[in-house]
Specification:
This protein is an alpha+beta fold. Among the domains are: 117 residues; 95 residues, Efflux pump adaptor protein, beta barrel domain (Elongation Factor Tu (Ef-tu), domain 3, Beta Barrel). The chain is 41% helix and 20% strand. It is built from seven helices and 14 strands. The strands form three sheets. Strands 1-10-13-12-11-14 form a six-stranded antiparallel β-barrel. It has a four-stranded antiparallel beta sheet with strand order 2-9-7-4, with no helix packed on it. Helix 3 packs antiparallel against helix 4, helix 3 packs antiparallel against helix 5 and helix 3 runs parallel beside helix 7. The relative contact order is 0.17.
C-alpha cells in the first residue's frame, strides 16, 4: 500500500529530489562569493591598497588678469577671445596724448633745472673772485686804519681823516663778511656734488623717467605667451588700474587639482607618480605626472564662510583635501588641456618615503616675465642728451680755500 501511495504522488517525489539539488546550488553560490571575496582580498592587499583614485579632479592653471598701470582711453585692441598672444606683444593701446604732454613738460623742466644748477656753480666761482677783490680792499683799508690810528695820536693826521679811514675799514670788513656768507650759501648748494649728481637735477631726471614710463604704459604688453579669454574691454572705454581688461591663459602652465578623501591620504607623499585621464580626450589618452604638493587644509576650510561644527546638529562628513598633480610637459604639449576640464586621477602609493608637506622653499621664482625690464632704456639716453645739451660744459667745483675764510680782526682800534 505504501509503494502504491508514493507512485500515485509524483509531486512529492520531485520535491524530495529538488532539496539536495537546491542545497548544492546554494553551496555553489556561496563558494562563488567566497572565491570572489578571496580574489578581491588578494587584489586589494597586493594592488588596490597601493593606488588612490578620484574623479573629483579638474584641470587648474594660471589666469593672468591684464590690467592697465595708468588711466587712459582704449584706442586699439590687438587680440580677442581664443587668440594667441606672445609675451611682449602689445595687446591693448591707450591714447597717449596726455602722456606725450607730460613727457614734454618733464623734458623742459630737466633742461631748466640743469641750466639753473649750472648757474649756481658759476655764481660760486664768481663769488670767489668777488671775495678776492673784497680781501684786497679790506687789507688796504685795514692798513690805512692802523696807520692813521698811530698818526692821530701824534697829530700826524686830522681826526676827520682818522674817522674816515675807520669807517672805510669797517665797511670793507662787513662787505668781506657778506661776500663770504654768500659763498658759504652757494657752496651749501653745490659742495660735494657735480652738476650731473646734484639733487635738483636728480629729482628732475626722476620726474622725466616717470613721464617716459607713463608714455610706455600706454602700450600694454602680454606678460606671458597664452590665449586670450574673458575680454571685457571695449574701444573708447576709459580704463584704470582697478579693473582687469581681459585674461591670458598660458596653455603650458596647467596642473591637476585632485580632491582626495581624507581617508585616502595616509600613504600619499610628494613625488609619487600619478596618471590622469580627461573626459575631453577619453581614456585612450593618459597624462603622466607626479604629486607636486598636498594642500595645507581641506577645501571647506578656505571657503568665505567656513563651516562651524561647534554649532547646531553635527553630522560627520568625510572631507576632501586638494592635491596638486604636476603633469609631464610633453604630454600637455601633445594634448593641450583647458582650465576646468573634468579628469580622473590615480596616484601610485607604493613609494611612501617622500615628505607629506614641502620641506624647503623654492630657490628660484616659479614664474617670471621680462617684458617690463627695459622700458626705461630710452629714458636714460634722453636724459643724457638733455643734460649734455644744457650743462654748458660745467665741471666740478672745489670748496673754497681755507684762507678765504680768515676773518681776523686787528687788535688795536677795533
Amino acid at each position: 500500500m505504501a509503494e502504491s501511495s508514493a507512485d500515485n504522488n509524483p509531486q512529492q517525489t520531485d520535491r524530495g529530489r529538488s532539496k539536495p539539488r537546491r542545497k548544492w546550488y546554494l553551496l555553489g553560490l556561496a563558494l562563488v562569493f567566497v572565491v570572489i571575496g578571496v580574489v578581491y582580498a588578494i587584489y586589494y592587499f597586493t594592488v588596490a591598497q597601493f593606488y588612490a583614485s578620484t574623479d573629483d579632479s579638474y584641470v587648474g592653471g594660471n589666469r593672468i588678469l591684464l590690467t592697465p598701470q595708468i588711466n587712459g582711453t582704449v584706442t586699439q585692441i590687438a587680440a580677442d577671445n581664443t587668440d594667441l598672444v606672445h609675451a611682449g606683444e602689445t595687446v591693448i593701446t591707450l591714447n597717449d596724448t596726455d602722456a606725450l604732454i607730460g613727457l614734454a613738460h618733464a623734458k623742459a623742466a630737466l633742461a631748466e633745472t640743469v641750466r639753473s644748477v649750472n648757474q649756481l656753480f658759476a655764481q660760486a666761482n664768481k663769488q670767489k673772485a668777488i671775495i678776492e677783490q673784497q680781501q684786497s680792499a679790506y687789507a688796504q683799508s685795514k692798513r690805512d686804519y692802523e696807520r692813521n690810528a698811530k698818526l692821530v695820536r701824534a697829530h700826524g693826521v686830522t681826526q676827520r681823516a682818522f674817522e674816515q679811514s675807520r669807517a672805510t675799514y669797517r665797511q670793507d670788513r662787513a662787505a668781506l663778511q657778506a661776500a663770504r656768507d654768500r659763498l658759504t650759501e652757494l657752496q651749501a648748494q653745490t659742495a660735494g656734488t657735480t652738476l650731473q649728481e646734484h639733487p635738483r637735477v636728480k629729482q628732475a631726471e626722476a620726474e622725466l623717467r616717470l613721464a617716459y614710463l607713463n608714455l610706455q604704459r600706454t602700450r600694454i604688453p602680454a606678460p606671458v605667451t597664452g590665449y586670450v579669454a574673458q575680454r571685457e574691454v571695449q574701444l573708447g572705454q576709459r580704463v584704470d588700474p582697478s579693473k582687469p581688461m581681459l585674461s591670458i591663459v598660458p596653455s603650458s602652465q596647467v596642473w591637476i587639482d585632485a580632491n582626495f578623501k581624507e581617508t585616502q591620504l595616509a600613504a600619499m607623499r610628494i613625488g609619487q607618480p600619478a596618471t590622469v585621464t580627461s573626459d575631453f580626450y577619453g581614456s585612450d589618452v593618459v597624462f603622466h605626472g607626479h604629486v607636486a604638493g598636498i594642500s595645507a587644509g581641506t577645501g571647506s576650510a578656505f571657503e568665505l564662510l567656513p563651516p562651524q561644527n561647534a554649532t547646531g546638529n553635527w553630522i560627520k562628513i568625510v572631507r576632501r583635501v586638494p592635491v596638486r598633480i604636476a603633469l609631464n610637459a610633453d604630454d600637455v604639449h601633445k594634448h593641450p588641456l583647458r582650465i576646468g576640464l573634468s579628469t580622473e586621477t590615480t596616484v601610485n602609493l607604493h613609494d611612501s618615503s617622500g615628505p607629506v608637506l614641502a620641506q624647503k622653499s623654492q630657490p628660484t621664482p616659479r614664474y617670471r616675465t621680462k617684458v617690463y625690464h627695459r622700458r626705461l632704456h630710452g629714458a636714460d639716453q634722453l636724459i643724457k642728451h638733455i643734460v649734455d645739451a644744457n650743462d654748458g660744459n660745467a665741471k666740478t667745483h672745489a670748496a673754497a680755500p681755507a684762507d678765504l675764510l680768515d676773518l681776523s680782526t686787528p687788535s688795536s682800534g677795533s
